Amino acid sequence: MVSETRLDYGFSGYQVPVFPRASRSARVRVPSRKKCGNNQKHAFEILASVAGELLQESRYFVPPDCKEDQHGTPEITVVKEQEDERQLLNCSHSDQETYDDKTSLQHQIHASNKFSNVQDQFNLKSSSTLKNLDLSKNVCLADQSAKVDDETASSSATVGISSPESGEFFEGQVEDARAEFSIIQSVDTATLPVTGGLEMLETDHKSPAFFCSESKLDASLFKDWITLGPSRHSNTIETVSRDDDENFIGCTQAGTTLKAFRLPSDLADQRVNNLSASRHWRVSPNLNGGTSFKNDGRRRSSFHSGRTNYTRQRSQRISPFKKRKFFNQCPFTAPDRVFQFEDKFSSADKRSNGDKCNAAVEVASSVASPHLPPGSRDRNVKLRIKSFKVPELFVEIPTTATVGSLKRTVMEAVTTVLGDGLHVGILLQGKKVRDDSKTLFQTGISQDHKHHHLGFTLEPKHTQTKPSQCSGEQGLTRRGTPLTLDPGASSAFLVPPATDCASGAESDLQVVSSLSNISADVANPQPLVSIPAISVEALAVVPFHHRPVHREFVQRRIRRPFSVSEVEALVQAVEKLGTGRWRDVKLRAFDNAKHRTYVDLKDKWKTLVHTARISPQQRRGEPVPQELLDRVLAAHAYWSQQQARQHNKSAV
DNA sequence: ATTAGGG
DNA sequence: CCCTAAT
After folding, report:
1. Which of A156, A299, A349, A548 has its CA 20 to 30 A from that of A211?
2. How far apart are CA A120 and CA A264, in angstroms?
3. Would you kindly state where each structural domain of chain A is located, as residue ranges?
């Protein structure tokens, strides 16, 4: 059959398409995708200069107990923690920084008896049940992996609990749907992006020698939160799998800051109040006016922009100076959130919690005391924005996605959230400070009032949401609807608790699920209950104003190079059916290859033709037998000719 | 849903 | 592989 067909080929050679389509440029096209660059930059500006703009002078605060890290940057705290992390967790991967996020991510975190410490540091939590089992000192192992083979991509996650004392080890595998669930969870849970908290450190009456005039923002600090389903009842462990920050903005090779998005145990506290405009960004009139979020949030555009920024950042080390630049470039900012600005000395409790809190953003500001002559720097208020929060992000990603893509996806989500342009609002003791002309002193932001909670809000420029400190109405709305689960229970994602901000009480992380069926999950005795991929319907349970956003972040399909045998099949089918009947080709030769669409086949044929025409030296990937390539050229020429004839015929 | 092409 | 326009 094949030879027969080949004999019919009149000539070998390539013909340009018989029915050339108007080139794209020839067609009138309306740009449907826009890059959200400027707004993001603005947002970053805000982030970077919250203190600077509001307090006139940003300072980089170096905690007294800080030592300089190996890079000479004052990020001691972070570095120190990182070391602690490695030491305490005794990570099985000595160089976690070099994960290949394309193939797999395997985290094995072993904690010794120091686990309790680690637990605190990483906000690892075990449910009460686990504690009852004396697991508080136990090892928590989280192994999440995503593997891809030729045929199918699958991901799995393993969660285990082991007891150093008893030597027992329990682990559960999560695969397929479960894996998907867990992954989704991790993503959703990872909704921690920008966390923020401002801390009023103290009043400095001396020259701010310890300050550098830059604020820093390390968005790189990102951690995936993986909340795996309980093995039974409420046996749940929340594990934090450390990310190789490589893919994240602000990530510095030195891994200076891993604290970034870790959810501090007092996260809830920090999350307080950030509900107000939380959903507005989604419906915000991004670029095309209201409905454009989709376009704006298009995976591609956002991805590219994100990657670009990321690339740039990577090369930018921690020099404060560069950081400023970083801010300007990075579309990574805080959304309309309120972040706490608290007096560092106001509460011992809080302080301790605050210590664990990772500062995605640390800004130390030195502010001239208002009651002193302008220009006088005698009295300054040091402020440190510990972190910003981006409470809610919804991401949907197939289990076949790579870890790397997951990271990118989350990054994109974050980027999109932050890309709309924000402005800063200030809350003092729950009241919004609207008069920009007032001095800090007049407003009450000074050492004399350091016991007053100061809050900053990042709000969409268009949405004049006035986030009362407690994010009143909206917070209530949100609070009422979603299911609130035991913090230790499995959950799909975290939703910033609408805890009352007035009290500023330390509330535990509130795990709220928008999935109604999650409740069933809790009660289900199964170690891990698989939950169908988050569907629009399911998410609809959440009081979203509009369609869930996660749709916008579509995962790029995993690359699956054609094998020689596949090429063979393709060639044979095309020889028989010709080009232009890709559906038939698909049915004929790839009917059982679910991942090969007719578009894929068409594309592959295109590349095959191209490959056949270039020199073997220029070819890449698995070499295709020349014999096949010859057939490709022959078939292509033949069918092109056929098309030409057909065309002429109809034209006449 | 398919096809054709540009990216 | 993705994205779209055009069927």
Report:
1. A349
2. 8
3. 403-445, 564-650
User: In this structure, how many other beta carbons lie within 10 angstroms of the beta carbon of residue A223?
Assistant: 23
Rounded to whole angstroms, the distance from the CA of residue A281 to the C1' of nucleotide C4 is 27
d(CA A76, CA A65): 8
* Two tokens, residue A320: 């404060």
CA closest to C1' of B5 belongs to A21
Q: Measure, in angstroms, how far nucleotide B3 C1' is from residue A234 CA.
A: 53
Through-space separation of residue A338 CA and nucleotide B2 C1' in angstroms: 49
- Judged by C1' against the alpha carbon of A600, the nearest nucleotide is C1
Q: Quick one: which residue's CA is nearest to B4's C1'?
A: A21
Q: From the CA of A26, how many Å to the C1' of C4?
A: 14
| Mean pLDDT of the residues in chain A | 42
Bases along strand C below 7 A from a protein CB: 1-6
What is residue A417's predicted lDDT score, i.e. its pLDDT? 63
CB-count exposure of residue A207 (10 Å: 0-12, 13-18, 19+): exposed
Instruction: State residue A171 phi and psi, 5-degree precision.
Output: -150, 155
CB under 8 A, 24+ apart: contacts of A318-324: A318/A71, A318/A73, A318/A75, A318/A216, A318/A252, A318/A254, A318/A256, A319/A73, A320/A60, A320/A73, A320/A212, A320/A213, A320/A214, A320/A216, A321/A214, A323/A48, A323/A214, A323/A215, A323/A216, A323/A217, A324/A48, A324/A214
Residues paired with A169 in a beta bridge: A162
Closest of A474, A512, A472 to residue A495, by C-alpha: A512
Q: How far is the CA of A605 from the C1' of C7 (A)?
A: 21
Q: Which nt has its C1' nearest the CA of A559?
A: C1
Q: What is the mean pLDDT of each run of 10 residues along chain A (652 residues)?
A: 27 24 27 32 32 26 29 21 26 28 23 25 23 25 25 26 28 24 23 27 26 25 24 26 27 23 29 27 29 32 31 27 27 30 27 26 32 48 68 67 69 62 68 74 65 64 33 25 21 26 22 24 26 26 36 76 92 91 93 92 94 90 91 91 74 58
Q: How far apart are CA A235 and CA A377, in angstroms?
A: 55
Q: Which residues contact A137 (CB under 8 A, 6 or more apart)?
A: A113, A115, A116, A163, A164, A165
Residue nearest to nucleotide C6 (CA to C1'): A21
**Fold entry, domain A564-650:** Serum Albumin; Chain A, Domain 1 (1.10.246)
